[in-house]
Amino acid sequence: MEQIYQENAKIVYHYLRSLCQDHTLAEDLTQETFLRAFQSLERFNGSCKLSTWLCQIARHLYYQHLAKAGREVCVEPDEHLASDSPLPEDTVLHRLELLHLLKEMQKLPVQMREVIYLRATAGLSFKEIGEILGRSENWARVTFYRGKKLLAAAAQTAEKEEPI
Question: Over the stretch 16-27, which tens digit does the pLDDT of each residue have?
């Protein structure tokens, strides 16, 4: 079980972090995910990658947490999502662009946002994303493409609105 944890903990953590934008909650849910996986390891049938199965468990735990807490997904991006270390002065513009992108991503429909996070942060394939979200590989691919188009359009609009 230790080897499974070492190989998959980062993927599960980054997936949960992308959903909740909270470092502490993501760590707690990652631990809970592996506990639940250990308790139900006999149910893993090998029809998907182990990391995909773990992300499915993590997703269910996150939604259970939201239901228990009685709150919605936070819409403000975590200020330290890109890096835990202080940023040099010459990267301030990049940081502002990243924050703008994250704010725009929060405006996307939940499943579209999840597809983009899974692809960008966890580097999962469209097939794996489809399995995690209970959809087809093609659905994940199209959803990702549409989300990218919406984000690109938002970036172009923001560029036009900024004074020179």
Answer: 888 888 889 989
